[in-house]
Design the sequence.
């Protein structure tokens, strides 16, 4: 029989990481773009070192912030251990953005003219186990009597296609804006960050896929958080952002929960 | 907090069934359309009893044949426990054929004008765990030192849109025809069944999705088998078809394996 192709080699490890699996908090944190690591078989995808460490490969700082939030909220955290350059787990398999051959100003040679088989390999190796793990985790929490608030944590680059972005933290939502509304109200005029609704991206850009898959159908409270990555480039910045976001989430979820209990 | 929606109720059970999980044979059997059972939440989908027991709901006889083959080949068998009327697990989420509002001559009222959230719910509840289980099983077999020959087992209706079909067993393949070629050659003129290549469907109809996802990328030998369902409507027919197919698979895989060993 012909030798089988294997996607991951021994040093690659698994695609999905779960931290604080026994967390008792309401929040389930998800980081689709946590890592810039490439499976060994892809080498550099033909990219320069600049590109390989840039925001096209991952969301710098997002995992560090999510880990701090995981501690503060006693929240389970699920993240993808490989770069979105190979497969962007926040996009469905049919989306051209799942595997890009151009991202911002970078051409990605290793993603050009891929066969259907190669796309399937990436889908089954990276996307299916990742979104499957989120599904399983939500089901397991339900079985343990825990409700779930789904919170995805991202970062964005300050300068995109040469344009500077003023927004510092984006609070993103799809058709269910309950939690996002509350978070935007709760900060009032007092936020140390410049917050915006559905900036620098919104649902029309296809960025709410994970929320759409798991939160909207089940009626779970949900939000996607985007932090400008220059603000979380070091530990002090990561700590400040995590403190702010954990407090904001805790208060916003608290009032939503309380209102519902009063109401019914 | 709002009550969560759950897809499966207690009596529904799990979407994926795995039988003979410790099977030592080369073959991994998959049955996407094994069952006509609907999750309780969907009632009848607005369909008549005739439609609910017809081939639009499942592949009658396919699971029974696959179970016999599982014994004969000591093969692990993975099947979907719910009807393709809710989600056809042999189709990717973007395909209009994944959730049909019309199938052959039947309108499916419960599938009309679905929201994106409802489609996502079916995708995460039925498709992700099913294709994820196949992925996991192939990986686990590899870890145990077992290669995998992926064989999907289906049945088709004798009369479709009023037309009678002469083919009795279809041997279907996508771009990798190694095993299908060998099976079609092996029978020569002596088959008790009328066999055809890529009939009554073929890859252009999108029916090779499971093979495309798992077998083609990894270079696994693979084939999709379609048996006309009037031939496997009772135990005698199921036994005869399983005997024939198990022998044909065993011989065909044997020669392919042997040739490769000689060659390399």
Sequence:
């Amino acid at each position: 029989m012909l030798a089988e192709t294997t996607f991951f080699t021994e040093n690659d490890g698994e695609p999905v990481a779960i931290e604080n699996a026994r967390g008792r908090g309401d929040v389930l944190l998800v980081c689709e773009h946590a890592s810039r690591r490439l499976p060994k078989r892809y080498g550099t995808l033909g990219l320069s070192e600049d590109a390989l460490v840039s925001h096209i490969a991952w969301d710098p700082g997002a995992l560090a912030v999510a880990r701090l939030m995981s501690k503060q909220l006693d929240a389970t955290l699920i993240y993808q251990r490989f770069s979105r350059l190979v497969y962007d787990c926040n996009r469905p398999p049919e989306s051209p953005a799942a595997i890009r051959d151009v991202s911002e100003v970078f051409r990605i040679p290793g993603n050009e003219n891929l066969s259907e088989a190669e796309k399937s390999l990436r889908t089954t190796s990276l996307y299916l186990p990742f979104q499957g793990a989120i599904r399983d985790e939500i089901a397991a929490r339900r079985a343990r009597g825990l409700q779930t608030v789904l919170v995805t944590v991202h970062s964005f680059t300050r300068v995109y296609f040469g344009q500077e972005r003023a927004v510092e933290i984006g609070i993103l939502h799809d058709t269910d804006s309950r939690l996002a509304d509350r978070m935007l109200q709760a900060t009032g005029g007092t936020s140390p960050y410049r917050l915006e609704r559905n900036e620098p991206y919104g649902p029309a850009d296809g960025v709410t896929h994970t929320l759409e898959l798991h939160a909207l159908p089940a009626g779970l409270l949900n939000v996607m958080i985007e932090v400008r990555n220059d603000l979380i480039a070091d530990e002090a910045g990561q700590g400040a952002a995590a403190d702010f976001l954990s407090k904001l989430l805790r208060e916003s979820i608290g009032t939503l929960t309380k209102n519902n209990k009063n109401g019914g």
